Amino acid sequence: MIYPSEGSASRVAQLAKIALEDWMQDWPIEVSDPARLDEFIELLLAHKLDWSLSFWLLDLVLESAWDDMCIAPQDRRTERTEPLIDALVAVWKATKAPRIALQLEDWACVEAADPDEMFGVSPLVREARRRVGLSTARSADGLIYLLDSASSAELADQGADSVLFDYLMLAEGAVGIRTRVNGNVSVAIDVLDAAPGDDNDAFDSVTECSLRVDSSRLKLISPASDAHDGDLVTVPAGWLRLRVSLFQFPDSNASADLQHVQIQCWPAEHRKPALVKEQNPNAPQ
User: Fold this and answer.
1) Which pLDDT band holds residue 74 (cuts at 50, 70, 90)?
2) Quick one: average pLDDT of 107-122?
3) Distance CA 197, CA 136 (A)
4) How far is 283 from 52, CA to CA, in rounded Å?
5) Confidence of residue 211 (pLDDT cuts 50, 70, 90)
6) DSSP string of the chain?
7) Which of 32-41, 149-158, 183-192, 218-227 has the weakest average pLDDT?
8) pLDDT tens digits along 79-102
9) Which residues contact residue 95 at a Cβ distance below 8 angstroms, ignoring those fewer than 6 apart?
10) pLDDT digits (tens, 9 = 90+) for 265-285
Protein backbone atom coordinates (compact mmCIF):
# COMPACT_ATOMS: atom_id res chain seq x y z
CA MET A 1 0.00 0.00 0.00
CA ILE A 2 2.97 2.31 0.50
CA TYR A 3 4.35 2.23 -3.03
CA PRO A 4 2.48 1.86 -6.33
CA SER A 5 2.55 -1.76 -7.45
CA GLU A 6 5.48 -2.98 -9.52
CA GLY A 7 4.95 -2.35 -13.20
CA SER A 8 2.05 0.06 -12.65
CA ALA A 9 3.86 2.94 -14.38
CA SER A 10 4.57 0.73 -17.40
CA ARG A 11 0.94 -0.33 -17.43
CA VAL A 12 -0.16 3.31 -17.50
CA ALA A 13 2.25 4.03 -20.33
CA GLN A 14 0.72 1.20 -22.33
CA LEU A 15 -2.85 2.24 -21.58
CA ALA A 16 -2.20 5.88 -22.46
CA LYS A 17 0.11 5.04 -25.37
CA ILE A 18 2.85 7.28 -24.03
CA ALA A 19 6.59 6.79 -23.74
CA LEU A 20 8.28 5.64 -20.55
CA GLU A 21 12.07 5.68 -20.74
CA ASP A 22 14.75 5.49 -18.06
CA TRP A 23 16.02 8.95 -18.94
CA MET A 24 12.63 10.56 -18.24
CA GLN A 25 13.32 11.92 -14.78
CA ASP A 26 10.25 14.19 -14.90
CA TRP A 27 7.80 11.64 -16.28
CA PRO A 28 4.84 12.19 -16.70
CA ILE A 29 5.61 15.90 -17.14
CA GLU A 30 7.49 15.05 -20.33
CA VAL A 31 4.57 13.09 -21.79
CA SER A 32 1.69 15.38 -20.71
CA ASP A 33 -0.49 16.54 -23.58
CA PRO A 34 -3.31 19.10 -23.23
CA ALA A 35 -4.82 17.90 -26.50
CA ARG A 36 -5.38 14.48 -24.89
CA LEU A 37 -6.70 15.73 -21.54
CA ASP A 38 -10.22 14.34 -22.04
CA GLU A 39 -8.75 10.97 -23.02
CA PHE A 40 -6.50 10.92 -19.97
CA ILE A 41 -9.42 11.79 -17.67
CA GLU A 42 -11.42 8.89 -19.15
CA LEU A 43 -8.50 6.57 -18.44
CA LEU A 44 -8.26 7.83 -14.88
CA LEU A 45 -11.95 7.21 -14.28
CA ALA A 46 -11.82 3.80 -15.93
CA HIS A 47 -9.06 2.67 -13.54
CA LYS A 48 -10.02 4.63 -10.42
CA LEU A 49 -10.41 1.47 -8.33
CA ASP A 50 -6.71 0.66 -8.74
CA TRP A 51 -4.89 3.27 -6.68
CA SER A 52 -1.49 2.35 -8.15
CA LEU A 53 -2.66 3.17 -11.68
CA SER A 54 -4.54 6.23 -10.41
CA PHE A 55 -1.36 7.47 -8.76
CA TRP A 56 0.42 7.80 -12.12
CA LEU A 57 -2.67 8.83 -14.08
CA LEU A 58 -3.38 11.66 -11.64
CA ASP A 59 -0.05 13.27 -12.39
CA LEU A 60 -0.54 12.77 -16.12
CA VAL A 61 -4.02 14.35 -15.96
CA LEU A 62 -3.01 17.27 -13.77
CA GLU A 63 0.11 18.08 -15.79
CA SER A 64 -1.96 18.00 -18.98
CA ALA A 65 -4.71 20.09 -17.39
CA TRP A 66 -2.19 22.69 -16.28
CA ASP A 67 -0.98 22.98 -19.87
CA ASP A 68 -4.57 23.08 -21.10
CA MET A 69 -5.43 25.98 -18.80
CA CYS A 70 -2.63 27.99 -20.35
CA ILE A 71 -4.12 27.71 -23.83
CA ALA A 72 -7.89 27.32 -23.26
CA PRO A 73 -9.99 30.46 -23.86
CA GLN A 74 -11.13 32.14 -20.65
CA ASP A 75 -14.82 31.55 -21.44
CA ARG A 76 -14.21 27.78 -21.63
CA ARG A 77 -12.34 27.42 -18.32
CA THR A 78 -15.38 26.25 -16.30
CA GLU A 79 -16.40 23.85 -19.04
CA ARG A 80 -12.92 22.34 -18.91
CA THR A 81 -12.38 22.38 -15.16
CA GLU A 82 -15.61 20.86 -13.80
CA PRO A 83 -14.97 17.41 -15.38
CA LEU A 84 -11.48 17.50 -13.88
CA ILE A 85 -12.74 18.31 -10.38
CA ASP A 86 -15.38 15.58 -10.70
CA ALA A 87 -12.69 13.09 -11.72
CA LEU A 88 -10.48 13.95 -8.74
CA VAL A 89 -13.46 13.52 -6.41
CA ALA A 90 -14.33 10.16 -7.99
CA VAL A 91 -10.78 8.83 -7.72
CA TRP A 92 -10.50 9.72 -4.04
CA LYS A 93 -13.89 8.20 -3.20
CA ALA A 94 -13.00 4.99 -5.07
CA THR A 95 -10.02 4.01 -2.90
CA LYS A 96 -9.29 6.65 -0.22
CA ALA A 97 -5.69 5.50 -0.43
CA PRO A 98 -3.27 7.46 1.81
CA ARG A 99 -0.81 7.98 -1.04
CA ILE A 100 -3.56 9.54 -3.16
CA ALA A 101 -4.41 11.88 -0.26
CA LEU A 102 -0.78 12.99 -0.01
CA GLN A 103 -0.56 13.41 -3.77
CA LEU A 104 -3.61 15.68 -3.81
CA GLU A 105 -2.23 17.67 -0.88
CA ASP A 106 1.01 18.21 -2.79
CA TRP A 107 -0.83 19.43 -5.89
CA ALA A 108 -3.02 21.71 -3.75
CA CYS A 109 0.02 23.70 -2.51
CA VAL A 110 -1.72 24.14 0.83
CA GLU A 111 0.82 26.61 2.21
CA ALA A 112 0.55 28.99 -0.75
CA ALA A 113 -1.63 32.10 -0.48
CA ASP A 114 -0.60 33.76 -3.74
CA PRO A 115 -1.57 32.17 -7.09
CA ASP A 116 1.99 32.76 -8.28
CA GLU A 117 3.15 30.33 -5.59
CA MET A 118 0.79 27.55 -6.76
CA PHE A 119 0.52 25.21 -9.68
CA GLY A 120 -2.00 26.35 -12.27
CA VAL A 121 -4.37 23.54 -11.23
CA SER A 122 -3.93 23.98 -7.47
CA PRO A 123 -7.26 25.85 -7.01
CA LEU A 124 -9.07 22.98 -8.73
CA VAL A 125 -7.38 20.39 -6.53
CA ARG A 126 -8.25 22.46 -3.46
CA GLU A 127 -11.90 22.47 -4.51
CA ALA A 128 -11.87 18.70 -5.02
CA ARG A 129 -10.33 18.20 -1.58
CA ARG A 130 -12.98 20.45 -0.03
CA ARG A 131 -15.79 18.45 -1.63
CA VAL A 132 -14.56 15.13 -0.25
CA GLY A 133 -13.60 16.32 3.23
CA LEU A 134 -9.84 16.24 2.80
CA SER A 135 -8.08 18.95 4.76
CA THR A 136 -4.69 19.88 6.15
CA ALA A 137 -4.01 20.35 9.85
CA ARG A 138 -0.98 21.88 11.50
CA SER A 139 0.54 19.35 13.87
CA ALA A 140 2.28 21.03 16.81
CA ASP A 141 4.09 19.29 19.64
CA GLY A 142 3.37 16.09 17.74
CA LEU A 143 -0.41 16.54 18.07
CA ILE A 144 -3.59 17.57 16.33
CA TYR A 145 -6.89 18.04 18.20
CA LEU A 146 -10.38 16.84 17.33
CA LEU A 147 -13.14 18.13 19.58
CA ASP A 148 -16.79 18.94 20.00
CA SER A 149 -17.07 22.52 18.74
CA ALA A 150 -18.67 23.46 22.08
CA SER A 151 -15.98 21.79 24.18
CA SER A 152 -13.65 23.75 26.44
CA ALA A 153 -11.50 20.72 27.31
CA GLU A 154 -7.81 21.32 27.98
CA LEU A 155 -6.00 18.36 26.47
CA ALA A 156 -2.67 19.72 27.59
CA ASP A 157 -3.72 18.90 31.15
CA GLN A 158 -4.07 15.18 30.45
CA GLY A 159 -1.35 13.18 32.17
CA ALA A 160 0.82 10.29 31.05
CA ASP A 161 -1.50 7.82 32.72
CA SER A 162 -4.17 8.39 30.06
CA VAL A 163 -5.31 5.29 28.19
CA LEU A 164 -3.32 4.73 24.97
CA PHE A 165 -1.22 7.78 25.81
CA ASP A 166 1.29 6.94 23.06
CA TYR A 167 -1.46 7.31 20.48
CA LEU A 168 -4.27 9.47 21.89
CA MET A 169 -4.95 12.06 24.58
CA LEU A 170 -8.52 11.76 25.81
CA ALA A 171 -10.71 14.30 27.54
CA GLU A 172 -14.43 14.99 27.78
CA GLY A 173 -15.52 16.17 24.35
CA ALA A 174 -11.99 16.14 22.89
CA VAL A 175 -9.31 13.83 21.50
CA GLY A 176 -5.66 14.62 20.88
CA ILE A 177 -4.14 12.54 18.07
CA ARG A 178 -0.41 11.92 18.34
CA THR A 179 1.21 12.42 14.94
CA ARG A 180 4.76 12.51 16.41
CA VAL A 181 5.69 15.20 13.88
CA ASN A 182 5.44 18.97 13.57
CA GLY A 183 4.05 20.58 10.44
CA ASN A 184 1.21 20.01 8.01
CA VAL A 185 -0.51 16.63 7.95
CA SER A 186 -3.19 15.48 5.54
CA VAL A 187 -6.48 14.60 7.26
CA ALA A 188 -9.63 12.87 6.03
CA ILE A 189 -12.75 12.84 8.19
CA ASP A 190 -15.51 10.44 7.15
CA VAL A 191 -18.91 10.48 8.85
CA LEU A 192 -20.48 7.02 8.56
CA ASP A 193 -23.77 5.40 9.49
CA ALA A 194 -22.09 2.32 10.98
CA ALA A 195 -18.68 0.83 11.73
CA PRO A 196 -16.45 0.64 8.62
CA GLY A 197 -14.80 -2.45 7.22
CA ASP A 198 -11.23 -3.43 7.99
CA ASP A 199 -8.66 -1.44 5.99
CA ASN A 200 -5.94 -1.57 8.64
CA ASP A 201 -3.27 -2.86 6.25
CA ALA A 202 -3.03 0.56 4.66
CA PHE A 203 -1.96 2.24 7.90
CA ASP A 204 0.89 2.19 10.40
CA SER A 205 -1.33 2.37 13.49
CA VAL A 206 -5.07 2.20 14.19
CA THR A 207 -6.88 3.14 17.41
CA GLU A 208 -10.50 3.56 18.43
CA CYS A 209 -12.14 5.70 21.09
CA SER A 210 -15.50 7.19 21.99
CA LEU A 211 -16.28 10.89 21.85
CA ARG A 212 -19.46 12.70 22.86
CA VAL A 213 -20.39 15.53 20.49
CA ASP A 214 -23.46 17.37 21.74
CA SER A 215 -23.06 20.31 19.35
CA SER A 216 -23.35 18.08 16.23
CA ARG A 217 -20.12 19.60 14.97
CA LEU A 218 -16.57 18.30 15.18
CA LYS A 219 -13.69 20.74 15.00
CA LEU A 220 -10.17 19.91 13.80
CA ILE A 221 -7.52 22.27 15.16
CA SER A 222 -3.83 22.57 15.93
CA PRO A 223 -2.60 22.92 19.52
CA ALA A 224 -0.82 26.04 18.30
CA SER A 225 -3.96 27.69 16.88
CA ASP A 226 -6.81 29.60 18.44
CA ALA A 227 -9.61 27.32 19.62
CA HIS A 228 -12.06 29.30 17.46
CA ASP A 229 -10.15 28.36 14.31
CA GLY A 230 -10.35 25.03 12.54
CA ASP A 231 -12.45 23.05 10.10
CA LEU A 232 -15.97 22.07 11.18
CA VAL A 233 -17.61 18.75 10.26
CA THR A 234 -21.31 18.03 10.85
CA VAL A 235 -21.92 14.76 12.75
CA PRO A 236 -24.84 13.11 14.58
CA ALA A 237 -25.28 14.48 18.09
CA GLY A 238 -24.38 12.21 20.99
CA TRP A 239 -21.83 9.46 21.38
CA LEU A 240 -19.60 8.66 18.39
CA ARG A 241 -17.04 5.94 17.89
CA LEU A 242 -13.84 7.18 16.26
CA ARG A 243 -11.36 5.06 14.36
CA VAL A 244 -8.09 6.94 13.96
CA SER A 245 -5.69 5.50 11.37
CA LEU A 246 -2.25 6.99 10.74
CA PHE A 247 -0.03 6.57 7.68
CA GLN A 248 3.47 7.99 7.25
CA PHE A 249 5.56 7.54 4.13
CA PRO A 250 8.72 5.68 5.21
CA ASP A 251 11.21 7.87 3.31
CA SER A 252 9.88 11.09 4.79
CA ASN A 253 12.64 11.65 7.36
CA ALA A 254 9.92 12.47 9.90
CA SER A 255 8.39 15.03 7.55
CA ALA A 256 4.83 15.91 8.54
CA ASP A 257 4.15 16.75 4.90
CA LEU A 258 4.17 13.02 4.14
CA GLN A 259 1.72 11.92 6.79
CA HIS A 260 -1.99 11.16 6.42
CA VAL A 261 -4.53 10.69 9.20
CA GLN A 262 -7.86 9.02 8.47
CA ILE A 263 -10.63 9.66 11.00
CA GLN A 264 -13.82 7.63 10.64
CA CYS A 265 -16.73 8.29 13.00
CA TRP A 266 -20.15 6.73 13.43
CA PRO A 267 -22.91 6.72 16.08
CA ALA A 268 -22.24 4.11 18.78
CA GLU A 269 -22.56 3.67 22.51
CA HIS A 270 -19.62 4.63 24.67
CA ARG A 271 -16.91 1.94 24.86
CA LYS A 272 -13.37 1.82 26.18
CA PRO A 273 -10.53 2.97 23.91
CA ALA A 274 -8.87 0.20 21.92
CA LEU A 275 -5.57 -0.33 20.15
CA VAL A 276 -6.55 -2.01 16.88
CA LYS A 277 -3.13 -1.98 15.23
CA GLU A 278 0.09 -1.16 17.04
CA GLN A 279 2.69 1.16 15.54
CA ASN A 280 5.56 -0.79 14.02
CA PRO A 281 8.64 0.06 16.13
CA ASN A 282 10.68 0.30 12.93
CA ALA A 283 8.28 2.79 11.34
CA PRO A 284 9.23 6.48 11.10
CA GLN A 285 9.00 8.42 14.34
Assistant:
1) low
2) 92
3) 25
4) 22
5) very high
6) --SPPTTHHHHHHHHHT----TT-TTTTGGG--GGGHHHHHHHHHHTTT-HHHHHHHHHHHHHHHHHHHHHS-GGGHHHHHHHHHHHHHHHHHHH--HHHHHHHHHHHTTT--SGGGS-TTHHHHHHHHHHHTEEEEEEBTTEEEEEETT----GGG--TTSTTTTTEEEETTEEEEE-SS-EEEEEEEEE-SS-----GGG-SEEEEEEEEETTSEEEEE-TTS-TT-SEEEE--SEEEEEEEEEEE-TTSTT-GGGEEEEEEEEE------EEEEPPPTTS--
7) 149-158
8) 778 899 999 999 999 999 999 999
9) 48, 49, 50, 51, 54
10) 999 999 999 999 987 654 444
Q: Residue 40 carries which side chain, given as an amino acid letter?
A: F
* Residue at 50: amino acid letter: D
84 to each of 26, 39, 63, 129, 187, how far by Cα in Å?
22, 12, 12, 12, 22
pTM comes to 0.86
Sign of CA dihedral 77, 131, 108, 118: positive
